[in-house]
Amino acid sequence: MKNYTNSFVRFLVVIFAFNSFAIAQESKDIEEITVISSRAPIPLSEVIGSVSLIKSDDIENRVVNNIVDLIENTIGVTAPRSDGYGRIFNEGFRIRGLGGKRVNVIIDGVRIPDSYVGYGRDVVDVDLVKKVEILKGPSSALYGSDGLAGAISFTTKDASDLADLNNPFFSATASYDEANDGTKYGFLSAFVGNKIEGLIQITRRDMNERNLHDYVKTEPNEMNGESNSILSKIKFLLTESIDLTFTIDIQEWENEWDLQTETGFSFFPIPTQTSSALGNDESSRHRFSAELGFNNQNMFFDNGRITVFAQNTEQDQVTNKSKLVFAMGMRARPTPFSEYQNFQFNQEIFGFSSEFYKEIAQSSGVKHQIVYGFEYESIEVERPRYRYETNLMTRQLNYNIGGHTYPDKTFPDTETIRQGIYFSDRIEITPKATIVIGARYDSYELKPSVDELFNRSNVARNELSYIDDSSISSKLGFIYDLNNNISLFAQYAEGFRSPDYESANISFTNFAFRYSVMPNPDLEAEESEGYEIGIRGNNSLGNSKLNWSLVYFENDYKDFIETRLTGRSPQGISLYKYVNLNDVTIDGFEFELQAIINDNYSLYLGHTNTEGEENNEELISIDPDQTILGLSWVSDNGGFNIKGIANISEKSIDGLAPVCGRGGCNKLLELPGRVTYDLFFNFNISEKVFANLAVRNLTDKKYWDWASVNGKAENDPELDLYVNSGRTISASIKYLF
User: Can you tell me the distance from the alpha carbon of 707 to that of 621, in angstroms, rounded to the nearest whole number?
Assistant: First the structure.
């Protein structure tokens, strides 16, 4: 590894030297603008810190269907798959080794719903998105709680992105994805008038469970699913300086499962033969917002916005089983039972926010870009669990199954109230030197509400946690132009995550398996400190253009919240709690290079090397070193484009200690290095017809993503359920009316 890294560093020195002595010419390209880094529009080349940008045309060209496809070529970001109750799903995002609730994910400024067992965070239809911005590193100084590892912002399309005055936009799209035999049909319309503009997009998807590699003998649980999404926006231009926008964002999906992995014979707590397990999951996310925008320069602001929003998420996870129960022993006649289970997760978010932007140019030449605002949100969440079995001979109902009495709630209904005030100032001291100062004050309350269903789970009447706390997060950055082509930058940023409803107040006892999980009233918020230092270059030489960046980062995390065995009761029941335990350090470097060689060819190179330690032990959740190499060719008339991507992943951490449990000790899985190739074709068939073709895993490589399988045993019987698909083809066609 050291030899490899040294060779790579020498390569970077060559690139640096090339930039230092290249003949610089002013580029006439329009620079990409990003907002996530300082909540103000900043050219990507002037951002302090690490930001990745994914645009809608890239999403279309690569035939992206989910969040795994979305970030497949973004270094330092992964989207692991997970499982729960026989369902395999996309868990969410992981940035530089940390994910889950430690990444702040928002859509048009509103948090997307939390994930829970059996559900993921793939709840945004990527077809609705105008751009995705990814901020790597602590982000709480701008976005508050949960910004421990970073932030991801989805921005949906606006009518003015597509249509002009008296020139409406209409398109229809159809696509197919071989990875899950999925089909998609979409319609998009937009118009712009003198005093009003609007947009509506409707998308219908039908899909199956992801197809595994042909060399895998295991069959995934069969799933047939469908989803529908609607995005509607209407904007009224009330005056020349005031506008009002209403947004409706509706996502609904349903999956039917044949849960073969839930069938078979089990001996504990009662010998049971399950012959069938059928699942039916229904989920919805409805978001509504009203935004008042104003552009009226005065001493307090140049422009701003005030937004009121509401989002309601409902998820029902239903499982029906047929089984034989040997209650009187294996030699006695078994009793036939049917079992019904519905585990729900419902979350409501209501809030409002205000944001103001002001530019100040002082007589001394110093310029300020100031952003400040206030946010308030109330989040209500519940997790009722309904389960019973019916004796098919006596028709008697039994609500005590597997050591639990149902219905119940493993944590109480909870309202979380968050309020934040933030301020960011980007100060151009000289034409070559700029600093950014940011700070945010957050207050958060956790207010549980006890009812009969929770008391049924909290049999020990454990003391609950009522949190009323606050936090201050800061950010300091600096960028300096060494010359017209090369800039140095450095940044310090803080992040935190307040204890949530689950970690603070989960409480249940399973008498059959003799363990109990208890709430922890003394739980503290997780905190992080991030440091970055980097160098960035850009050059133009004739038709050739080169942009590159090299960043070293270190993120220190403390008071990690994890479950631990804290003792045993007098009855011998093992007692677990969420506790503040681990300190983690993650550091590494990222390198990116984008080169436009001429009018036809362009090149991309990205590399990330990340290491992590948890209590002085190597952190196994860190992804192996990754290199992405891409080459693109476009025809002279721009009507045909081919892009090839090589994704190189080195071998995972080796020499891992075995994992031990009741069944003995098993060796942990280790993965070899691998290289996969993807090809993307884009055709402008005519002025109105556009086609895209994606061939992923061109060489039909069998491989796993480390983010999905780290920590699993080498002999895990369900390991093959996480293997990636073999060679797959995706295609789409769009027609403009």
Answer: 7
Compute the distance between CA of residue 119 and CA of residue 117 in angstroms, rounded to an integer: 6
Q: How many CA atoms lie within 13 A of 419 on its CB side?
A: 5
Q: Is 364 exposed, middle or buried (CB count within 10 Å of its CB: 0-12, 13-18, 19+)?
A: exposed
Cβ-proximal residues to 706 (8 Å cutoff; 6+ apart), any chain: 623, 624, 649, 652, 671
**What CATH number has the domain bearing residue 228?**
2.40.170.20
pTM of the full structure: 0.92
Distance separating alpha carbons of residues 732 and 339, to the nearest angstrom? 42
Q: Which residues contact 172 (CB under 8 A, 6 or more apart)?
A: 185, 186, 187, 188, 734, 735, 737
Signed CA dihedral, 23, 27, 32, 33: sign only: positive
What is the residue type of 710?
A: N
Quick one: DSSP state of residue 662?
T
* Sign of the torsion formed by the C-alpha atoms of 83, 85, 87 and 90: negative
CA 93 to the chain's CA centroid: 3
Domain with 312, as residue range(s), is 2-736
- Which residues of the chain have a pLDDT value below 50? 1-29
Condensed to tens digits (0 to 9), the pLDDT of residues 558-578 reads 998 988 889 998 888 899 999
CB atoms within 10 A of CB 367: 16
CA distance 61 to 690: 10
Backbone angles phi, psi at 289, to 5 degrees: -150, 155
pLDDT digits (tens, 9 = 90+) for 179-206: 999 999 999 999 999 999 999 999 999 9
Q: Where are the beta strands (DSSP E) in 143-221?
A: 150-156, 169-177, 182-192, 196-208
How many structural domains compose the chain?
A: 1
Q: Are 351 and 378 in contact (CB under 8 A)?
A: yes
